[in-house]
Amino acid sequence: MKRTLNLPDGRHAALSIALAFAAFGSSAQSPTPSPATPVAQSFTLSNGMTLIVRPDRRAPTVAHMLWVRVGSIDEVDGTSGVAHVLEHMMFKGTPDLKPGEFSRRIAALGGRDNAFTSRDATAYHQQVPAQALEAVMKLEADRFARNQWSDDEFKREIEVVKEERRQRTEESPRARMFEAMNAMVYQASPYRRPIIGWMSDIESLTPNDAREFHQRWYTPANAAVVIAGDVDVEKTRALAEKHFGPIPARAVPARKPREEPPQSGPRRMEYRAVADQAVVALAYKVPRWSGAAEGDAASQDALALTVLSAVLDGYAGARLDRALVQGQGTAGKRIADSAGASYGLMGRGPQLFSLSAVPARGVTPEMAAAALKSEVERIAREGISEDELRRVKTQWTAGEVYKLDSVFNQAQELGSYWANGLDIHTGDRLMGRLKAVTAAQVQSVAQRYFSDQQLTTAVLVPQGGQK
Amino acid sequence: MKAVLRISFRSTAVLAVLLASVIHNAQAAIPIEHWTHASGARVYLVASPSIPMLDVQLDFDGGSRRDPAAQAGLANATAGLLSGGVAAQPGLPALDENLLSEAWVDLGAQFGAQASADRFTLSLRTLTEPDLLQRAVALAARQIAAPAWPQAVWQRDRERLLASLKEAENRPGTQAGRAFARAVYGQHPYGFQPDAATFNAINVADMQAFYRRHVVACRAQVTLVGAIDRAQADAIVGRFMAPLKSHGCEPLPAVPQVRALERAIDERLPFAAAQAQVSIGQPGIARNDPDFFPLFVGNYILGGGGFVSRLTTEVREKRGLTYSVFSYFAPGRHAGAFQIGLTTRPDQAAQAVEVSRNVVKQFVEQGPTEAELVAAKAFLVNGFSLRIDSNRKLLDNVANIGWNGLPLDYLDTWTQQIERVSVADIRRSFARVLQPDRMVTVVVGAQP
Q1: What 8-state DSSP symbol labels residue A169?
Q2: Measured at the alpha carbon of residue B395, what is the angle toward residues B391 and B399, in degrees to the nearest 5?
Q3: Which residue, of A116, B36, B57, B306, is most buried by count of CB atoms within 10 Å of its CB?
Q4: Does pLDDT of A26 surpass 70?
């Protein structure tokens, strides 16, 4: 329930904790490169594909990612989950490569490979020794342009994806609750569907659904190659032009806006499941950060909401922990065994500010919800201290330095900005803007965005256990 | 030092020179400096100047294998309560848990404690800007020297632990994990399962005593990776070890070895679940096993190697029975488990068990093919640089070298050790270590 940065991992690791909810892409907890680091450069290849290179010669390794700006947000009813299924099928071959051969080739180079699908994007990644870069680019370009597999291969992989859904979602009451909640928060926005898809949609997907999705969205102008590590920029650019450049250009299909209509009054649901502890989650519709060079009012608020989230739950002993878990709040006793806040900040679709808690024994979900709200109300009333403000900024600034230890994270961050339509300087810009947020701004967003008008509440109600 | 680093980062030319750092040179040899501090602590340092940050890891022989059976969970609880605050010291006021946490955030630094099966570990990550470094070291030293051991915080955390234990009992994965550990380890501490009774039997005085007994300078291992030199490292170690002097150096009793299984154990636990949980395995090897490398390479082929392993090929790729299937050894001071794990639709559990058992049986009898071994070596040897391409990974590796008494050139000779492994080595070592007809099989939530 905490803000795990979930760029969900389609094949191995987490397909988003099914908190379709919590922040995707970058959250306030993972700010951006500091100016004192090697700079990224961005190019457009001859066919319209984007190339982003960030040299970092500290170790002789490279992170190579291919991002496609297509995720569950681009799906339609009846074929939910197709973006993620296609991601699985991308490992199943090309005219020159048998199923599974892609991963075997990467392994032979000494590399690790995987992929993930999120609401906003699909990304394929390899970590390899620097000298293997060209071989990897060649393999990735081949499957991007010529992914091909048999219907039989598809049928087997669908069974794997169903197991994945069982493992991530069906087997977890909390994951199921958040999935159901998400479907209630949004009505028109495609964000209402789970990334992995509804079970009956997965079951009825056809091989051609996946092939057509690939044909439609995997075009050079809708993709970016992101490389960080021990590389020379000009050589890398030439290699990218050589391997990705010849892929024929195709127009990116028009996207329907499918905007979420304004919410007009509170929504509330119960999800009953075999569990011992209840969970209560509150989601408020709030603006997102556009990343535009001149900050619009909504983006200013988005930055302040990021600080608000950190002040509530950015470190041990932050406000929610202290008030609800330690029991120092107005209730005068322990309210929750855990409590958290998260905010999406940016994404291709609408963003939420979420509060959640696992009520302590003897505390009702309603009391826990009231305690969560009262912490935001307190900030609306009294504001935050300069100490708190400085503290979360210090934490972010230090995080900028620690982040340099991983070239993979550098590539991942640049890629997620690109997927959101933002440039390579976004990280620095965002950091600069966050540092300029004032205590007054934080108080102001706490006053303006947390009315019941915009609120969706979900409660996991425990039902009798197994024995 | 700060100025030099800052400038170098901005200038690419200088950058290339300065950053031709440890890791690049690592291709030839990784310069691990090792010495014994005056306090008795064994120190390992890799100076990695290119990022102005430092990681320090302190390891002690105080993992959960040191838990008394009736107080399973003691090592972990002790580690957890270290964040509960520091007591007042001459000239320094006490800090409660919140003041302590805020102090760390205000430095942009992190300090944590955790217990694994073998080790009690403290870790510090900080920036190396001189003023910040000095203050972070001072705060860490206070936390090591004078934990507050607040009774109220433990009471609260125990309530939370008990609640989450109870919640976890509703999950088939929890049940499978417990049953597997019980069956594989028997009475050995590696198999201890904390529960309400053992947590209720732990009080802060026990933690205090556990901490004093195990967190001692004479058995400390300190690993440092970051932008500092040997003199700085030695001074930091001195700050951390000084307060431990009063802990003395009481010898610790030997922990018995994990006993081999005498017969196969088959446990089927009914559970209404969306997926059945399958665990198959037995006691495996200790880290000092002479066949570590053949077993490591062999397991990559059997079930460790991502999308290309035999288990993944047979259970997932060919039959679509699971999203994830793996095998691993967990070598420690004692014979940690060899384990195969997977989850599958309840009515497919029997088939998944049969396929997995056959894969292991065949692998133990016949070993890998030459082609599989060639592919495994290519992956491991070619990808070696990916194992040490960050400070964090270097820290893990160097702490591992120290903890397991491996030679200082262990990383430098690692690829040679891999190259040396033959099909015959793998077959022989697997046949010695694994007994497919005497394994534990735990299946929770299967439907006929």
Answers
A1: I
A2: 170
A3: A116
A4: no
* Strand B265-269 to B440-444 pairing: parallel
Task: Using alpha carbons, select from A417, A412, A390, A456 the residue that is nearest to residue A186.
Answer: A456
The SS3 of residue B354 is helix
Strands A61-68 and A50-55: unpaired
Cβ proximity of B172 and B129 under 8 Å: no
**A218 to chain B, closest Cα gap in Å:** 24
- Residues near A45 by Cβ (< 8 Å), separated by ≥ 6? A51, A220, A240, A241, A244, A245
| CB-nearest partner of A163 from B108, B171, B323 | B323
Note which residues in 86-125 of chain B have CB less than 8 A from chain A. Answer: 97-98, 101-102, 104-109, 125
- Considering only the beta carbons, identify the residue of B172, B345, B382 that sits closest to A110: B382
Residue B149: phi, psi to the nearest 5? 50, 55
The span from the CA of A222 to the CA of A44, in Å, is 12
Q: Could you report the per-residue pLDDT of A185-222, keeping only the tens digit for each?
A: 999 999 999 999 999 999 999 999 999 999 999 999 99
A365: tokens are: 């979900």
Q: What is the pLDDT of residue A38?
A: 67
Indicate yes or no: CB of B16 within 8 angstroms of CB of A57.
yes
Average pLDDT of the residues of chain A: 91
Pairing mode of beta strands B53-60, A455-463:
unpaired
| Residues near B123 by beta carbon (within 8 Å), at least 6 away in sequence | B55, B56, B57, B58, B110, B111, B112, B113, B114
Phi, psi for B309 (deg, rounded to 5): -80, 165
Residue of A nearest to B273 (CA): A171
- Does A428 contact chain B (CB < 8 Å)? no
CA distances from A261 to A187, B195, B361, B387 (A): 8, 49, 59, 49
* Closest-approach residue (CA) in chain B for A399: B108
Please check the confidence at residue B182 and state whether its pLDDT lies above 60: yes
Q: Which of A12-21, A189-198, B298-307 has the lowest mean pLDDT?
A: A12-21
- pLDDT, residue B10, reads 26
HSE-CB for A269 with a 13 A CA cutoff: 16
ipTM for this model:
0.91
pLDDT digit string, tens, across residues A232-271: 999 999 999 999 999 999 999 999 999 999 999 999 999 9
Sign, Cα dihedral of A7, A10, A13, A16: positive
- Cα angle: A389, vertex A394, A396; to 5 degrees: 100
Alpha-carbon distance of B341 to B328, in angstroms, equals: 9
User: Using the 8-state DSSP alphabet, how is residue B215 labeled?
Assistant: S
**Closest chain A CA to residue B164:** A277
CB contact under 8 Å between A402 and B172, yes or no, is no
pLDDT digit string (tens) for B197-210? 999 999 999 999 99
Helix and strand numbers (H, E) in chain A are 15, 11
Of the candidates B62, B76, B243, the one whose C-alpha atom is nearest the C-alpha of residue B154 is B76
Which tens digits make up the pLDDT trace of B2-55?
A: 222 222 222 222 222 223 344 444 445 789 999 999 999 999 999 999 999 999
Whether A291 shows a pLDDT value over 60: the answer reads: yes
Distance from CA of B213 to the nearest CA of A (A): 28
- 3 state DSSP class of A262: coil
* CA dist list (Å): A313 to A20, A342, A443: 19, 8, 16
Could you please report the per-residue DSSP string of A175-212?
Answer: HHHHHHHHHHH-SSSGGGS-TT--HHHHHH--HHHHHH
Query: pTM here?
Result: 0.92
A465 pLDDT band, cuts 50/70/90, is low
Query: Cβ contacts (< 8 Å) between B6 and chain A: which residues?
Result: 36
Beta carbon pairs, A and B, within 8 Å: 214
Question: Region A419-423: what's the mean pLDDT?
Answer: 96
